[in-house]
Design brief:
By secondary structure, this protein is of the alpha/beta class. It contains 10 helices and 13 strands.
Length: about 325
């Protein structure tokens, strides 16, 4: 029998700022209300760095990476590759992944960033999976980290209420001839839709811009389709899915995706109420909650799905 590699998620770690900003707190800053925000989005609070705080994405991501390594009892020196998904890096270069490498004390891994906005974690996970299956790496960290608070216009209530700061990391390890691990990934993009969600790199007004109605319309359809296509690649159907862990963007979007897939609501993991939209960090943050409260068990089949600016979207099917 030919040797077959599979990449398995063995641990997850997270890190968020200590400061919590509730919807009631935002009422003091904006013409909005707790009821308006929670009803339309499902968000009740978010973790945010304070204005002017010396916040570093690589430190936040590095703490999540350290937590994942600690849970797996793995030395940083045993990691062969680090991929970081972020749209809020500290530098254009060096990459956030390289800074995370330095932060955790690794001197031998390859390290680079991926830019796919809120779909970044799924994109980075797919790349890491390919690198392990090809034999290039045996053990990899995939980190999603965002300091979204420095990318939003805090006078624009349509966007700033949605986002939170945070980081999540998973540790992947090579396994032989197993049926537990990343079973399939599916990635797609459409640059023609880039103008409905974007963040300029230069200029005076470097704030995120979003056409919420258009994003909603495309997100439900494209994330639902990506889930179905990825399950098909894995030889599974929606009936085989124990947990759907979507990007935590908006509760209405997530509920609509579950309905589109005909998936019982109780199988969908949500923690949007606690963290808001943390972009590339949202899936690992949700995975950590589900793993921590016992919903991720031996043999659990989970689907990650996300859509972000680009537009870029994708899914991954994982058996734990």
């Amino acid at each position: 029998m030919a040797y077959k590699r599979i990449a398995r998620i063995v641990s997850v770690g997270t890190s968020v700022p200590e400061r919590i900003v509730t919807n009631k707190d935002l009422e003091k800053l904006l013409d909005t209300s707790d009821e308006w925000i929670s009803t339309r989005t499902g968000i009740r609070q978010r973790h945010l760095f304070a204005p002017g705080e010396d916040a570093r994405a690589y430190e936040l991501g590095g703490k999540a990476a350290r937590a994942a390594l600690s849970k797996a009892r793995c030395s940083p020196l045993d990691v062969d590759g680090i991929i970081c998904a972020t749209f809020s890096p500290d530098y254009f270069f060096p990459s956030t992944a390289c800074k995370i490498q330095q932060f955790i004390g690794n001197t031998r891994a390859c390290a680079f960033d991926v830019s796919a906005a809120c779909a970044g974690f799924v994109y980075a996970l797919s790349i890491a999976d390919s690198m392990i299956v090809s034999g290039q790496c045996r053990r990899m960290l995939v980190v999603g980290v965002e300091i979204t608070s420095r990318t939003v216009d805090w006078t624009d209530r349509s966007t700033c209420i949605l986002f939170g700061d945070g980081a999540g990391a998973v540790l992947l390890e090579e396994r032989e001839d197993g049926d537990k691990g990343i079973l399939a990934t599916y990635l797609k993009s459409n640059g023609a839709l880039g103008d409905i969600l974007y963040l300029p790199a230069f200029g005076e007004h470097r704030y995120m811009k979003m056409n919420g109605n258009e994003v909603y319309k495309h997100a439900v359809r494209l994330m639902g389709d990506a889930t179905e296509q990825c399950l098909k690649k894995a030889g599974l159907s929606i009936e085989n899915v124990d947990l759907l862990i979507p990007h935590q963007a908006n509760l209405r979007i997530m509920d609509a995706i579950a309905k589109h897939l005909n998936l019982p609501r109780e199988r969908m993991v949500t923690n949007l109420d606690k963290y808001g939209n943390t972009s590339s960090a949202s899936i690992p943050l949700a995975l950590a909650d589900a793993w921590g409260d016992g919903r991720v068990k031996d043999g659990t089949v989970a689907v990650f799905t996300a859509l972000g600016g680009g537009l870029a979207w994708g899914s991954a099917v994982v058996r734990f």
